[in-house]
Amino acid sequence: MSLRPTPAALQPSLGLTGLGVLAALPAAAQTPPATLALPELNVQAPTPPRYRADETPVVRMPTDVREAPQSITVVPRALIEERGATSLREALRNVTGISLAAGEGGFSGDNLTLRGFSARNDFFIDGIRDSAQYTRDPFFLDSVEVLKGPSSIMFGRGSTGGAINLTTRMPKQGNSGELTLTGMTPFGLRSTADVNLAAGDVAVRLNAMAHTQDQSGRTRVNNERWGVAPSATWGLGTNTQLSLHYLHQSEDNVPDFGVPFANGLPVPVSRGAFYGLNNLDRERTETDVVTATMRHRFADGISLRNTTRYGNYTRDIDATAPRLIGTVTPSTNLANVLVNRQPQVRNGVDTILQNQTELRVVANTGPVRHQIVAGLEAGRETAQLARFTTNARPAANLFAPDFYQPFTEIRTLNTNTETTAYTVGAFLVDQMQLGEYFEVLVGGRYDMFNAEYTQLAAATRVSTNFNRTDNMFSWRGALVFKPWTSVRTYFAAGTSFNPSAEALTLAANTANLDPERNRSFELGASWDVTQDLAIRGALFRIEKTNARTPDPTNGTLNVLDGEQRSDGFEVSAAGRITRDWNVIAGYTYIDGEITKSNNPAERGRQLLNTPRNTATLWTSYDLPYGVQLGGGLSYIDARYGNNTNTVRVPAYTRFDAALAWSVTEKVQLRVNALNLTDKRFYEGVYQGNVTPGAGRTFLFTVAARY
Prior knowledge:
Blueprint: H1 11-24, E1 72-76, H2 77-82, H3 88-91, E2 98-100, E3 112-114, E4 117-118, E5 123-125, E6 128-129, E7 141-148, H4 152-155, E8 162-168, E9 176-184, E10 187-199, E11 202-214, E12 222-234, E13 240-253, E14 259-262, E15 265-266, E16 282-299, E17 302-324, E18 338-365, E19 368-390, E20 396-397, E21 411-434, E22 438-457, E23 463-484, E24 487-498, E25 516-528, E26 533-551, E27 554-576, E28 581-596, E29 613-622, E30 627-636, E31 639-640, E32 648-649, E33 652-662, E34 667-674, E35 682-685, E36 689-692, E37 697-705
Parallel strand pairs: 5-8
Antiparallel strand pairs: 1-7, 2-3, 3-4, 5-6, 7-8, 9-10, 9-37, 10-11, 11-12, 12-13, 13-16, 14-15, 14-36, 16-17, 17-18, 18-19, 18-20, 19-21, 21-22, 22-23, 23-24, 24-25, 25-26, 26-27, 27-28, 28-29, 29-30, 30-33, 31-32, 33-34, 34-37, 35-36
InterPro entries: Beta-barrel_TonB, Beta-barrel_TonB_sf, Plug_dom, Plug_dom_sf, TonB-dep_rcpt-like, TonB_sidphr_rcpt
Membrane topology: Multi-pass membrane protein
Keywords: Cell outer membrane, Membrane, Receptor, Signal, TonB box, Transmembrane, Transmembrane beta strand, Transport
């Protein structure tokens, strides 16, 4: 009997699979040929600090983090895992100047403010916008970079307070794998996998995740999601390289809109008070992102990269926003107060198709060394959103809401909106080294942003249409002075813009407005205290010079007569104090104020959701016998849920701890305690409701690597 030969098209895949199986086998099961005895080599080098990521390239900039004249915080994968972060929001606890926001008007997913300004539309994956509404999971991430200050020169519209860029794990040389299994309290299970296989200059990688968790202290609130992120690279290590990456993530959650305010503060109910209804409150999302990247290196210091991405994001949410019924005063007996279960019912689809071309050049012109990045991008984004009204949900008792109260929902389509937006942008940045002590950065970007918006009222079948085109130029400049090799100081300035259709929506009161303009000034410095430990600091001011505010002659329209500013400073440290002692810490002070507004109640008030003081600390110590002890805190000052400062959320400090034991080089056990003291605190904040944070949570993880 003859065997049919393996088709040539399948041989590379089968070969990679075989290599992966061999790599996973115990050493004793792999019998090497005993043909030649080689001399034993003993190569030792110090391991790099786990929390210091100065060599991380800055997306759309010609330098790495160490050389960038800008405040940048990098959260590396090692830190995400040590702290037991199972969401991007948890990973961002390592960054100061950030506070979470709630889901305004039915918005869900990640939402936050950065240096005093909303960053809901300022999430990016490998430099391409990812502003859809879903809960980002770090299972496929190598790091999270938070770039602070206006960044339109890099990303186009938005990024007033900064931007959050997610760097994906891509195929690499060698065969490796990691599997984690986690159990959580009060109930939760999580599993992740990361497998990399390589053969020659071809490598593939698969990241996968499954997660279900009941939120500690929040009765009925549950989050479930799963995701996969396969990728492949051809030409690894060569001058020409092609990479493909796909991300899929599905969510099925019980959304949490928290508790209402009374007399300007969260109502004093139990942490577990939940005002949703059984079999009604639900949130589903589907995220699909496909990316193709081609890189070519022409010579040392000259490379070209082209990236094409298509993303499709669907969401369906039916949530309950609690609102008090009637007027509540300090003398009101809250036991008699009822809660209106306000429906938030939406479903929609967002898409993005974008292409970026980026040229990087390192060259000398006489005594000047240039690091240049130039780029061109074009894209199309769409947003479709259907809003529903429903029959009235039964009122709930403020202190004892009945989750199982009978109710049958009847939906009626209210409006259906569709937006199509086109973006074309071109940018150039040059960081020039002038001798030993000075560097100068100059850069500019031009953007054309067009949005076409249609809203159909279901009841009247009347269609409302708006069209807006904005052309904006953004710039950035910086002067760097290096008095010693271990010290860098800089002064930087730049601009950004916020068009009316920034979030892919328009309205009658904004459709005729030019973009809001922002400018930033930053004086900063960094000091490499040792080879392993760096300290950074910066003074900053961000000004929104023409904020939208009501027209004093026509309350149905807005005008660009407002002004807002954010003044502050920050200091941070990252690295290793001794061989076994790692630390990352930061503190930020922000004085955010509405300095000019046509609404007298807003003038002189603190910016929405902007705490004056934020601080974070995480430190770990490597003990003998493979034991690692870690702990830290995150502090968020009091902040307001609206621009008139009539609702306020108190400050809080959350403590976390971790204990890990490397049983062998390939097996580790880890216990994380989140909110160790079971602190009662509030996270997502908006003018009508506030979301309580999770209570004490334990995570028990076993990780196996090969």
